[in-house]
Amino acid sequence: MRSQVYEWDAGRDTAASATSTGSALSIFIGGRGNNITKPAETTATQFVVIEDIGITPTAYHGATGSSGTYRGLRHDTAAECSGPRAYIQVRINTTDYFLDPDNIGNDGIPGSAAPYPRSVFFQPSFNLYPDVYVLPGQTWDVLVTHYSASGFAASTASAAAGEMQAFVKYTLYDGPDALIANKLLEMGVSVNPGNVDWYKRTLISGASAAPLA
Amino acid sequence: MRSQVYEWSNVGGNSTRRTAGDAGVGTVASGVDLDIFIGGQGNNITKPAETTATQFVVIEDVSCSPQLAGALQIRINTTDYFQNPDVTDQAGIPGLASPYPRGAQNASTTSFTPDTSTDDNTALLASFNLYPDVYVLPGQTWTVLYRPISAAVAATDGVAAFVKYTLYDGPDALIANKLLEMGVTVNPNNVDWYKRTLIEQQSAAAMAATAAAANGGGQ
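Structure tokens for the assembled complex are given below, as produced in the milestone run.
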């Protein structure tokens, strides 16, 4: 099992811009920012546990009338806030994880609740618990929706490096650890490194006790 | 069971969904409760929030912008959760006690203009933790109300509110109800614990049946 992270920056490679506002953008293969070569999927011997997500926050305040910055976030002068108004959603196969209270899929976690990077001025209100499990053979994705291109460099309305970033922390269980993760899931036990190690110790204790019996 | 959030802001004025290039902000009257789900200002949802017969909701956190002395109230059916000591109505949890975002600037009674504010380096932390959690039982309607106390939210003030809750559905909702009957706190750990207990009981029953069969079908 290995702790893994993925960081996406809308300003790298083909930068996100005004044309991408309002639409859900895959941080893996969305064609904006840094991407990977193929969709994220687990093989038959892999099990992924997504433990944390975060995205650039937004600050809400009074009218500014200027195109400056507030706490490192560029003003959206039209909407009385600073930052990209960005949200981050997890999708497993074709199902969005986060829903509105009317049971309709929403944009996901707001950056103001799960900020990346965290700072004194932007601390998390949200903790992804219970974790999100990606079972063997499933495809998963993380989608970013942003509504304010004014939150980017005013002259180009394209994201500069660092203006909108997303972060995913997950643990990859592979080989026998993935089998144990599946077993824990069947047992109703949370899948985390501590419990996987506990299950291994239980198996070893059982195997050691058998010859003695 | 799934961790869920809902964020409301008055940015965009009055639209059910956020849209690209939202401009302007909705106004909210001082001292008046605004339903952040279906209140007609800012982003809304399509119908009142309610749990079906196979859903159980646990509200774990609420917070809002601290400026204008904003506060958040939870309402289950027609009952407000937060009350004054004399059991009269109150606005709810102040944004100063539960700020959104955490680390927001201290602008307790007024709006603020970032470029000119002298309090730019203040960062509010949470004084309030919603514990015990608030349960929304199957079949109940719930909502969250935002109220600016010191002044109306003007058309130049951006404000936001945030709700964190866990949705238990299907068998998890049945287990949540069972835990509630038992007086056990409903949280993901306890739901998993109850599942494990059920599995252990089933395994023990199966082993007992096997042992009985091996002994000739019992005495």
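Chain A has a mean pLDDT of 90. The CA atoms of residues 73 and 83 of chain A lie 5 Å apart. Further analysis is deferred to the final report.
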